[in-house]
Structure formats: C-alpha cells, structure tokens
C-alpha cells in the first residue's frame, strides 16, 4: 500500500479512517489544488479563515473529481464560535464545498473555555444529525482538552497542531494520544524554513537520495501522524506525496527524534 493509499484510524468515530497525508490549503489557490488532486492527494485541509473552500471544490472539479471523492476537512474560525455562528459557518462551508456532509470539522483555535464548549456542543449536534462524520480541535493544549472533556463526553477525533522535526511537540502528542485523540501535523515542513536546511535531515536525505521535505514527511508517516504539507509548485506538490521509494530505519528515526539540537536553528 502506498502512503497516499494509507489511512490511520480516526478515533471516537464509528470506525472511520483518515488519510495519512493531505494537502494543506492555507495560501494556496485552485490551480495548486488541481495539481494536488491530479497527483493523488486523498485529502484536502481547508478552513473558513483560509477562504480556500471554493478553491478546493474548483480544483477538484478541474481534476475531474467531485468533492465527495476526497476526504475534506474545514474549521470553525474564532468569530464564529457561538451556536449561531457555528451553524452559519457550517452551512457556508457545505455550500462552498457543494456537499451535504463534511468529513471532519475542527475548532480552529481555542478561545475561552465557555466559548469552546458552546462551539463544541453545536458541533456535537451536527455530528448527531449526520452532517459531519467526525469532529475535532486544532491548536488545543492539554489544559484546553481537559476543559472540553469536563463539559462534554464527546472526545475529539483529532487535535491538529503545528508539528515538524524542529518543533516536535512530544508532550502534547503524548497528552493528546493518552486522551484518545489522534494528531495531525500542520506546517510539517516548518513553512519551508530551517527544517529544509537542517544538517541532520540533509545528511539523511542525501544518504537516501531524496529531499529533506520527503524525509520530514516520511518521519511523520512512520510515527503515524497525519501530515498536510502545502505547496504551490507542481513539482514540489508531487514530491511531497512521493514517499514510497524509501523508508527511514530505526537509527534515522532516532536521529530525527533527537532534533532540534541545542545552539542550532
Ligand atoms: P512552495 O509553495 O513554493 O513550494 P508547510 O507545509 O510546512 O507550511 O510549508 C509550506 C512551505 O514550504 C511553502 O512555502 C512551500 O513553498 C514550501 N515547500 C513545500 N514543499 C516543499 C519542498 N518539497 N521543498 C521545498 N520547499 C517546499
């Protein structure tokens, strides 16, 4: 099975699974989405705040795909975190995607506990009504996860957080997983910054004949963390899902686990 075909369990759902890799759509356009769709990305991560939901639908159509052919995620923005706001944002997202049901709906950023809970309760109702297949959160720390759990029995399926080899968030990954929540990594390439120039990643990439971006994404894949890399460049879009011709051995995984190094980056 290829990386693009691999799915990980989506906890706290009726046996749903989430593709191991998706295309991040922050600051990308319809042309990039179409390139990603043609390259075989099985999932597309959007958000009300990104204003890219229509670009996702349009890009998929350009590639000859229906929105229901791919796993679609979107997020509730801060200004919509009331019962009314969530319902209205959700309906706008379904219109933008041209779907009745959204695969995964997340709270984009935590706000005050009462606001998180009001938002979450409304998302629970959308879940119960079958309008979303799974609900989760983004950018939540352990205390915020606990505050949510104190007011609701519905455990988030996902905590989507910024995570890459130079920002590994080990405690938060563990705290999320201990609570039965799966982790998705956004900015898995460190937004194209120092990660891609890191000497250890570069050495591993050279040994394997791949790029540092591919090493970073393969490391996440082997840790069973979903990643959603972004690119507007067709070659890099293809490169970021071309992760099957190599694997990281235990020593290479451990070397990346030991990053970042003191006094560097
Ligand atoms: P570009 O769109 O020119 O490819 P992240 O997903 O961590 O947020 O990173 C996105 C950034 O990384 C973008 O600036 C993107 O630029 C760049 N990028 C994406 N894929 C690669 C790659 N394979 N090699 C180098 N830079 C990349």
UniProtKB/TrEMBL annotation:
Signal peptide: none annotated. The keyword Plastid does not apply. InterPro entries: AKR, Aldo/ket_reductase_CS, NAD(P)_OxRdtase_dom_sf, NADP_OxRdtase_dom. Transmembrane segments: none annotated. Keywords: NADP, Oxidoreductase. Residues 21-259 form the NADP-dependent oxidoreductase domain. Pfam families: Aldo_ket_red. The keyword tRNA processing does not apply. PANTHER family: 2,5-DIKETO-D-GLUCONIC ACID REDUCTASE, NADP-DEPENDENT OXIDOREDUCTASE DOMAIN-CONTAINING PROTEIN. Belongs to the aldo/keto reductase family. This is Aldo/keto reductase. It comes from Frondihabitans cladoniiphilus. The lineage of its organism: Bacteria, Bacillati, Actinomycetota, Actinomycetes, Micrococcales.
């Amino acid at each position: 099975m290829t990386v693009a075909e691999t799915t990980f369990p989506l906890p706290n759902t009726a046996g749903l699974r989430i593709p191991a890799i998706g295309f991040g759509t922050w600051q990308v356009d319809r042309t990039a989405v179409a390139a990603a769709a043609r390259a075989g990305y099985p999932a597309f991560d959007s958000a009300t705040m990104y204003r890219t939901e229509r670009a996702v639908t349009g890009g998929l159509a350009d590639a000859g795909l229906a929105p229901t052919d791919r796993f679609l995620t979107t997020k509730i923005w801060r200004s919509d975190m009331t019962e009314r706001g969530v319902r209205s944002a959700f309906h706008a997202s379904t219109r933008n995607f041209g779907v009745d049901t959204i695969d995964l709906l997340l709270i984009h950023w935590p706000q005050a506990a009462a606001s998180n809970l009001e938002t979450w309760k409304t998302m629970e109702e959308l879940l119960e009504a079958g309008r979303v297949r799974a609900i989760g959160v983004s950018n939540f720390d352990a205390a915020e996860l606990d505050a949510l759990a104190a007011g609701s029995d519905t455990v988030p399926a996902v905590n989507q957080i910024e995570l890459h080899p130079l920002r590994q968030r080990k405690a938060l990954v563990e705290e999320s997983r201990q609570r039965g929540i799966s982790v998705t990594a956004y900015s898995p390439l460190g937004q194209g910054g120092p990660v891609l120039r890191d000497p250890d990643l570069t050495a591993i990439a050279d040994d394997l004949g791949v790029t540092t971006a591919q090493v970073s994404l393969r490391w996440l894949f082997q840790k069973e963390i979903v990643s959603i890399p972004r690119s507007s460049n067709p070659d890099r879009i293809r490169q970021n899902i071309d992760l099957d011709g190599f694997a990281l051995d235990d020593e290479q995984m451990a070397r990346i686990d030991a990053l970042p190094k003191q006094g560097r980056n």
